[in-house]
Amino acid sequence: MADDVADTAAPPPSAHSHEEGPGELKHNAIGFVDALVIGINSTSPAYSLAAVIGPVVALVSIYAPGVVLMSFVPMLLIASAFFYLNRVDQDCGTTFSWVTRSMGPWAGWLGGWAIMMTGVLVVGSLADVAVGFGLLAVGLDSWADSALVRQTLTVAVILVMTAICVIGTEASAHVQNVLILAQVACLLAFAVVAIYRVYAGTGTLDPIRPEITWLDPLGAGGAALTGGLLLGVFMYWGWESAVNLTEEVEHSETAPGRAGIWSTIVLLVTYLSVTIAVVAYAGPTYLAENAGEEEFVFALLAGEVMGGWDWVVLFAVSTSALASTQTTIIPSSRTALSMARRHALPSVFARIHPRFRTPHVSTWAVAVVAIAWYLVVSRISENALFDSLTALSLLIAFYYALTGVACAVYYRRHLTESVRSFLLIGVGPLVGAALLSWLLVESVVDMSDPANSYSGVSWFGLGPPLVIGIGIVIAGLVVMAGRRLATGAFWRERPGVADPDLVHGRKPEPL
Asked: Does residue 17 lie in a domain region?
């Protein structure tokens, strides 16, 4: 039968097994630190800062650090949900698997589809930024200005980073370890020099000394705060890549979840430090006036702060986007693998490379679709590419909120066992889900106005980002309906509750 699972499409392995079956990912391929690095790099810290800092300051002025702090709250609460759900289900499909188990196949499928589509929307843009800043860092400005050169190199970068993902999780981790060191070192150097020049009085712009009131997220208030939080959520998105590697990480019951939580904490420290340094050195007026430069506001500041060493910051943004190009493929490909293993997608996506023990078919499929999306949207306009990134906030808020609800629902019989369980497994994830749901609604309202898009044009009377989001939902519903007609196995799954033995850390008896 066409839909039968091949010999490489096995169910997820036991968390305690050590030998891989023919259809399993490579067990214990990486450790906690490697997963942590991948989680951090997936957010593309330098690129996220470069892309968001100008617009955030334009919205909330000196309260940008407060917005960064407040945006961290829902991320930490959802990271807690990922930690506890991973304890009872170490499936590389994460949200797809957890929501299916707790709320049924229909909701689970939509959550998985949202994760896969985030990779399609963002991989090309990340690779494009990596190429652009890389060319600027080595002085090839004319190449960076050429659309043909950038698009050609961008496709090449995606293919190379995809190949590294296929070759093995260890190879991916080694590359990520190098890139994170280069990225963090460059960011810290920028922040230290900027703060030093502020206090030394040698700044070239309009510096102001930091104050504790900058950390007040409610200082701006109103629509400005909402807009800033939407951008802040985008800054933190991606840390869950560490959990998507759960079947390949040592101590899979706890290490991936801890890596996700610590990723958000490391990001908070990094984002706060650099945001304070940027606002202090440049001042809110300069940043607001140059917010339209998008990520290239960092290129402007690099020259102001570092002088002849501006390539350090350009290199940081380039390596950041390059690292995230690779790691962003991971959640999409692993989710497709998990969905295929349960017949929610064609079984071909469940194939595991016999030598490298990675999901090579789903990995290349994500890369090919992402390249096609990037080339098509780039032909429309560069602003259209930014619009597709804006549409990400809809998908991110949706599947993060869904995960938060799934955590409380799946653990519902255990929430009253202790105050800790009630707060960390029940209340916390639900609060995080509520905050993200609120941001999702605000995003839809904001994106319905074409004037709020980068392109500033109307698509069917709506803003392009909202049209892209609606199009993704419609496409998902069509594919889901097709799968429902093709096979009934997955759709007959019924919601359940967390296994008490797994909740309390009791290992199942070997067969």
From this structure: no
Neighbour tally for 372: CB within 10 Å: 12
**Is 422 part of a structural domain of the chain?**
yes
Tokens encoding 166: 């296929």
Q: What backbone torsions phi and psi does residue 240 show, to the nearest 5 degrees?
A: -75, 0
| Alpha-carbon dihedral sign for residues 195, 200, 205, 211 | positive
Measured between alpha carbons, how far is residue 125 from residues 101, 227, 387, 481 in Å? 33, 22, 11, 30
- Residue 28 in any domain: the answer is no
What DSSP state is assigned to residue 153? H
Task: Tell me the C-alpha distance between 369 and 293, whole Å.
Answer: 28
Rounded distance, CA 384 to CA 453, Å? 9
The token duo for 408 is 């409380």
**3-class secondary-structure state, position 383:** helix
CB contact at 8 A, 269 and 87: no
- Rank 22-31, 145-154, 375-384 by mean pLDDT and report only the highest: 145-154
Q: Taking the mean position of all CA atoms in its chain, how far away is CA 78?
A: 13
Q: Looking at residue 251, which CATH number applies to its domain?
A: 1.20.1740.10
Rounded Cα gap, residues 405 and 397, in angstroms = 12
State the sign of the Cα–Cα–Cα–Cα dihedral 301, 303, 305, 306: positive
CA atoms within 13 A on the CB side of 66: 20
CA 307 to CA 194: how far, in whole Å? 11
Q: What is the largest CA-CA distance in the chain?
A: 74
3-class SS at 176? helix
Please count the structural domains in the chain: 1
Backbone angles phi, psi at 461, to 5 degrees: 85, 5
Whether the pLDDT of residue 367 is over 70: the answer is yes
Q: Is residue 237 part of a domain?
A: yes
Average pLDDT, integer, range 232-246: 83
Domain residue limits at 145: 43-502
pLDDT digits (tens, 9 = 90+) for 60-89: 888 889 988 988 999 999 999 999 999 999
Torsions phi, psi of 138, nearest 5? -100, 10
Given a contact cutoff of 8 angstroms between Cβ atoms, the answer to whether 108 and 396 are in contact is: no
pLDDT digits (tens, 9 = 90+) for 86-107: 999 989 889 999 999 999 999 9
